[in-house]
Amino acid sequence: MLPAFFTKTSAGAGSELEHEVVALFEAHRGRLLGYVMAFGIAAQDGEEIIQEVFLALFRHLRMGRSRRNLRGWIFRVAHNLALKQRQANRRWQSAMEDDTGNPGAFADPAPNPEEHAVCAQRQMRLDSVVQAMPEQDQWCLRLRAEGLRYREIAGIVGISLGSVSISLTRSMARLMRAGEM
Q1: For the chain, which residues score pLDDT lower than 50?
Q2: What are the chain's domains?
């Protein structure tokens, strides 16, 4: 679903810029949404975040700013917005728990038994390993799975290139050990 901002095209250079941003949106929307949802963000909120990312990209390009590594740029913006949304969701959930006295009243329901039956035991084990990893390792692993280079990951997560390498090496070793069980 394209942001409403991009459904009306204008003539001239603005139109070319809109086409470029729409092409980037179509190329990266699914992967960005998956990355944002890995933060525990609901799909609807994730869609809004993705629209904000591409609106920010349009503004960024319209102001003549750098076009270098746009894929890394959009993942970094999505990363930051997802962190903000997750924090806002936690504050809201905390406020709701305080008001009702029932901490589980507004939590999402657990996956149903049919979904559990479909998942293979190996996949569940791997998911558990990933969930047990520190957040930074999870982010590095997911961004690498999206095809980003170490340097891009370092810029998005805000850590050194060496830290990305260590994080990914550690994460892959954990996944390999879990897959051998």
Answers
A1: 7-11, 108, 118
A2: 1-108 (1.10.1740), 111-181 (1.10.10.10)
